[in-house]
Every structure is written in C-alpha cells, then in structure tokens.
Amino acid sequence: MALDLDTDRIHQLLHDGVRDKVYPGAVWAIGDSLGTTANGTVGVLDPERPSEPMRHDTVFDVASLTKLLAVWSTIGCLVEDGKIQLDTLLGHFWAEVSGHPLAQVTARHLLTHTAGVPLRANLKNLYGTDPQDVRDGVLREALHRPPGEAVEYTDRAALILGYLAEHLSGQRLDALAVDRVWQPLGMTQTSFGPLPTDTAARCAPTELDDATRTHLRGTAHDFSARLLGGVCGIAGAFSVLNDLATFLRYLLDPSRVSEAPGFGPDWIKESLQIHTGELTPPRGLFWHPAPGTTPEADDIWVHYGFTGTGVWVSPDKDRWAALLTNKLYYTRDREPLTHVRNTFRSLAFA
Q1: Cys staple from 86: which of 108, 167, 170, 338, with CB 3.0 to 4.6 Å?
Q2: Taking the complete model, does pTM exceed 0.85, yes or no?
Q3: Among candidate residues 209, 267, 265, 216, the one with its CA nearest the CA of residue 76
Q4: Euclidean distance between the first and the last CA atom of the chain, given in angstroms as a whole number
Q5: 349 near 300, Cβ under 8 Å?
Q6: Residues 281, 287 contacting (CB under 8 angstroms)
Q7: What is the rounded distance in angstroms from the CA atom of residue 39 to the CA atom of residue 47?
Q8: pLDDT digits (tens, 9 = 90+) for 26-84
C-alpha cells in the first residue's frame, strides 16, 4: 500500500493550503486495517503563536464528526443490542414523541437525513436556553416535509438520535459513548468539551468568539453544543488523529481489537451502503459516498466536520484517511477547503 501513495504531492497540497490561508495548520494520516501507513503535519496551531507547530497530538474540535463518534456508533450498539429496529416508527416505542409529528419517523429516516425534520437547529430562538425545554421542543416540532421524500442534511437528525440513545440506554450521550465505544477501543483522548485547561492548551483554535474577542479553544464552536452544556448529538466532541485512526481501523477489520465496542461488522456493513434509493444525494447511514465517487466503482465513504475535519473509509480498498484542520479560524467559506479535501481524497485512495 505504501508504494502507491504520493506523499510528496500530499505534503505540497497541504502546505499550499497553509500558504493560501485555507487553514493555519493540518494533521493527516492514511492507513489500513493493520495501522497507519503515512502521516504528517503542516502549519501552526495558532497564527498568533507562530512558533508552535501543528502536532500529531493536537486536539481538534471535530464538530460533526461527533455524529459518527458518538451517535452513529452508539445507535449501532443499540441496534445490535436489539433495542432499536431501524424501520419501526419512533412513536411505537418512544413515549416522548408519541402523538407528535416525529412519531411517524424511523431511525433509518434520521440516519439517512430523509426524516423531513426542520433543516436549521435554531434551538435558542425557538425553545430558549433550558436543556429540557430544548429537548421537548425538538421532539415535538412539526416536520417540514413528509418522511422519506427528500435527502436533506440537518443537524437535528443527530440531535434526535442522540436523545433516543440516551432514552434507550439510560445514560447521557457522553457517558454512553465512553462506555460502549471510546473506552473499549482505547480512544483515551476523545471526549466532549469543554476541555480542561491543560488539554485546551494543545487544542487547535477555531472561530473568533464575539463575546471574549478570542478564538475558541477547548470549547465547542457549534452553538447548539454550547447551549446544551457541550454534549449533544450534533457536535461537541474533541479528538486527536491517533484516536480517529483507531476508530477508522476498527471499521475495516473489527476482528483485530482485543476489546470490541458495542457495534460490530453487521452495523458497519449496513451503514456503508446506499439506503436512499433513487433520491439524491445518495446516503448511507450517516456516511455518504465521497464527492466524485460512486459506491459501485470506488467504495469510498466520508463524513466532514464544519470546523475543518474529515474522515474517509473504504472497506473494498482496505484503506482509511483522516484530515484535520482548523480552517474555521480564518473563514466559514467552504470552497477553498473543499478543493483540498477532494484532492487529498484522490491522492489517499489512488
């Protein structure tokens, strides 16, 4: 595998991103089910502290990768425990949503972003700041279209599934993720924030916080996560390259771990295939085909985080890749990083 990786081009691509201020810095790795084949770092942790380079153990606000690390994985545990059937209407087994529009939605709808729930979170504006009021509001909200009609990415899908996982497990989402996924896999540097001061010091800063006039570091950028105390299905998790590599490696060969998490090969295989029929864009369960690829020809699946993070996995190619940046330090504009991500993917899976 190592022979066909053009690491010089990867380094040049990522260095150009630093030069062009797409992000202050990045860490990356590519590997297979046996381990990491190639990795590297570019740029600096914080442009205001130019003597501090990005490091392999830099902590990143992984944003929507939380949907994989904490929600997709724990829902997989609950499916394999027999506590959730993907096509059973939520109203049949979840009293909180019975009699409300969400009762007609299934877990599969939520995992494929076809539930028809509102596209924007807007939690504070709609429901206030009390976490129970937010939960009640989200679980009782009207749908904006019938379930199964369209694929529309929305943070609410993961928020609702996070609430469902808490309901069925009797644990808060952060404790559930630790117990069933992160601890068994040895992901010791993955946690929800806010982070302790010493850990936050090696965290890549994200967007400028209007309230403090400093860049967020160790506190989730995502407003919904902050509103809910740092823990929710949308975002809020922090991690490091090595932990993400461990997670991705497990997806390629679940048999190679000494202590397995609560989800296994059945959930992985189920998730990395299209569940949306003729609807576009095509979706697996939270994962989706990488841009410019097809499941039949390429089998490369991806998920991104708004802060500038991304992970890819391909069972057919026995390969995974991770690219972690803090592009949000500079801008919310998606386009510059989109080019870098797609080129990185093409080099990683050449």
Answers
A1: 108
A2: yes
A3: 267
A4: 10
A5: yes
A6: no
A7: 22
A8: 999 999 999 999 999 999 999 999 999 999 999 999 999 999 999 999 999 999 999 99
